[in-house]
Amino acid sequence: MSNFFAKSAALMAAVAFVTTPALAGGTHSNADKPEIGAPGKAAHADRVIDVSLTDNAYSLDQLSVRDGETITFRLSNDGEFLHEFNVGTPKMHQAHQDEMMEMLDSGMMSMEKKPKGKGHADPNSILLEPGETAEFTWTFAKTESLEFACNVPGHYQSGMVGTVSFDGEVAPTGEAKS
Ligand SMILES: [Cu+2]
Q: Could you tell me which CATH number the domain at 37-165 has?
């Protein structure tokens, strides 16, 4: 009998342990911002993918990743306008487009120049001016309808967006890490 209670207690402890991370994750996020992953370290990247940004397209159509995979994107803005690489859900992209539209209207940024100051630093996105190159490393967490997109006004609508799928079975599209 005492053995039965000991087992039950152990089982309950295990259940509590398993559910805790999910609850903890819920405290620092909200329904509008799902856990899409986190900034990663280039030194720990599983893959490196070169992406050229032009007016208005990516050289990458879509991306297939594994849950927890860290990818470094070597971005190059080869266009004549400002472009962004942003990892998010359609809802997050929409919100960001509204923000950018406001910054454009207020003169904080232009179609060629990034906003001045530090008022525009989201961990899940990077903006590049014409001719600029940058590295962006992200650790992906399995998310429904995840996309990489450019939220400079009008660009998403003209097709500067690609899907991120988590089937993880498609061969890597990027070059192997050296
Ligand atoms: Cu763009």
A: 2.60.40.420
